[in-house]
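Sample pair:
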Amino acid sequence: MQYRILLPENFTEDKQYPLVLVLHGAGERGNNNSSQLVHGSNLFASDENREQFPAIVIFPQCPKGDYWANATIDRSTKPIKLKFSLESKPTKSLELVMNLLQTYLQKPFVKKEQIYVGGLSMGGLGTFEILYRQPNTFAAAFAICGAGNPEGAKEYAKNTNLWVFHGANDDVINPQESINMVSGILKYGGKPNFSLYANDNHNSWDSAFAEPALLPWLFSKSKRIKNDK
């Protein structure tokens, strides 16, 4: 799997750093190892944020034809229709991402109580799914214009801090999908942040990545370490 990694300035293996996994949308799929940086990478790569929040940030790239989430997708309607089965196996790309993450979790310079994941659109789907599949790994996560199976939140709602974003005018992924996920998280004991942008269409990632509180919120979260299933 192609991926880019951003290391903190003056990185040394003698220190420990938080790790952030960022999952891109369907439009950034491919094998050029650069398209996945289109949305969000500038936020983490800015001099100010690298100084204030030194972290290891991984940007994997999903090949064309595959998805981060194992979903049944009906594109004959707009917004598209999505169905998620909790019994389905991960896609090849998500399996590779989970393997990649496990490789880094073995590194002594990774702060295991500060592992984060986030994504937009298809990456929002992948965010909810990787939380379901590895519920004890992540201290916090953000999902932008995503979707998932609300019943899957039972596995991670109490373990992971969530911030969910969506645009009220989204005509690609219905904002009701995020509302359903927030409802599922609340149902199973989570306390998520939820930002619904009244004027945004599918590109609510622009508003989400412009949120001044996003990174301070993300990096303020840590958790006790447990072994995943």
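The first helix runs from residue 41 to 45.
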